[in-house]
Each structure stands twice: as structure tokens, then as C-alpha cells.
Design goal:
Length: 375
Amino acid sequence: MAIRVRSITAEESEILDRWERGDNIVCYRRARILRLSEADWRCPAIAEVLALHVETVRWTIKTFNEGGIEAITPQPRSGGRPPGYTQEIADVAEDLARQEPPGQEGRATWTLHGLAKAIAARFDHIDTMSHEAVRRLLKLRDIAYYRAKQWLTSPDPLYEQRKRRRDRLLALARAAPDGAAYWLDQSWFSRWPYRFRAWAAKDTPLRVAQRWSEKVDTTALYAALDDESQEAFLRWATGQPDSEETVQFLEALMAHCTQNGLRFIVLIWDKASWHTSRRTQGWIRAYNRRAKEEALARLIVCQLPTRSPWLMPLEPIFGWTKHQILGGRLFQTVAQLQAAVESYFHQRVAHAKERRDQACAKAQLVPTQNSVSVL
């Protein structure tokens, strides 16, 4: 038997007109169903034109005929099932999670199952509680299971004073047109492949060749990084870094700075034994006396605090070079390894110059000079 809409009153017609003009899709469809039924459309035809199930059309017409416009007005959602556990239980779960478990647990931290048992024991009306319920309660309080991170700190009692001195000398060198700041550090490189990241399929994991205990070719690199231009002055040590190698590197570096017309440089390095040795410190004092007499570039040394690698920008550069530039490559000779490292430092200078030129172009400035890496 066909079902048709009853006579629509003027008040109901006004409401249906608002529904058809509104942005509520449910109200719009129900209003169209009633209007088309009023125009003698059959239920299958209405369902086809509105892309609805025919039973939905019949339910809308039948419900309107019996209960009026209020019966087909969409009701707000209830918000889902009410929570099964109260805020009091959530407070207990949070307090327990922030405490250490009792001694009989034999653990330093809680497990979800252990928390569930402890919470259930606190309340008489809870017989059992699942570990997943505990996880959801803690998640609502922004509590999750994290791995503790190790925070590096420097044991140097004069850390703040030395850091402030570094900042003060950096500002001095950056402000002086005839001054420069250099970061100096050393790093060891090996012909063996390093741990690296690369693109690979899931079923073909990357492998690093095993680094056995037999002796392999290694080489040490002295690097002085210009703070402004990122120009790298490099020198490969003939053996282990020591005071004599350091003095030879400083002689070459100061000759390079004097040739470039610098009046002074600020040299920032760590407290390695060959930096603080009597031989190195004596050479620095003798050089500054000679520089004063012969109008050479003066050398101002700034020592970083003990065990503070985060203050040395060369540390991440060395790490990036080993794991991303050298990566899984196995070099046949040390010369090939050294060439790859030097090539990367050349590229860093070019990229730094490109970024400076872009910044100058944005600021409508012209770069004062072009820096070229000296290797």
C-alpha cells in the first residue's frame, strides 16, 4: 500500500522552507521527501532522485504523519557512552603512575597490569580492571610511557664564565672588519664504513660491514672553521694529534690570516691536552710577541668549558660527514677518504655563500667579498 504525506500546515510549511534553504543535510533531505510526496511522488521515485533507501523515505513520511514536524527534527547526539570510570579513579591512576611501585613488585616502574591491580584494590566496587582501561585513563591525563633521555652537562665549575667569554669574543670578532673568529677541532676518520641512513625497501634492510678489531687505516683531520663565511682551513695530521702537529697547524693558519689582511683572530677550541700543553701555550705567547713586532695577525685563544661538545659547531659537521657523506662507502686508500672529506667541506662553503647571497638579496645588500675555501 502506497504511503503519502498528510496535509502540511502553514506553520510546518514555513519550517520546511527553512530546512530546504539551510545547510543541514538531514533537514534538507527530510524536507525534500515531504515536498515530493506532497507533489504525488511515489516512495521509490523519491528514494531514487534523492539517492536514499526507500525505507528511509517511508519512515520519514510515516513519522511525520504520526508525530508532526517535531518527530522528524534531528536531535543532537548524546556524545557517546558515558565514561565507565570517574575522575576519582583517574586521579588515583595518575598518582600511582607518578610513584614507584611497592617493593614486592620487584620493578623500578609500574606496568599497566600492575597499575590495574593496584587501582582495583583501592575501590570496593571494582572487581577487575583491564590494562587497556588504565592506558586510556593515563592518556586522558597526557601521561604515557617514555624513555628517559640522558641530559649532557658540563662538570666545569667555570662553565658560565667561559661561555660568556666565548660569546663576548665572538661578538668582538663579528663586529670588527679586520677580525675573524675560527672554531678549531680535530676528528679521526677511518676507511671502514660508518653507520648511515639511506633509502631501502622494507624487505631488504641496510647492512653495515662489520668493523672487526684488526688494524685499519685511520687519519686525523685538523679543521679551522670561519664563523662568518664557513670557510674551512684543513690539514691532515701525519699521525696522532699532538702538540707539534697543533703548532704546525697554527703556523699555517696564522700565515693564511695575515695574508688575508686580518688584524686579529679569535680561536675557539676545547681543552684537549695538545691545546693546553706547555709546548702549544709557549708557541702562542712567542707568536703574539712576534706578531706585535712584525705587524702580523694577533691570536686570541678562547677555551671552551670542559666536556661541552654542544658549544663546538664542528662536532655535528664531523658527525654528518662520517655518517652521511662517507656512509657505507669502503675506500681503498686513505687518499680517497681524504679527498671525499675535503670535497664535502668545499660544498659547505659554496652552500654557505649561496645562503648569504640570498640573504643579502632580500635585504637589498651587496656581499662585501667572496670567500673561497683553502684546502
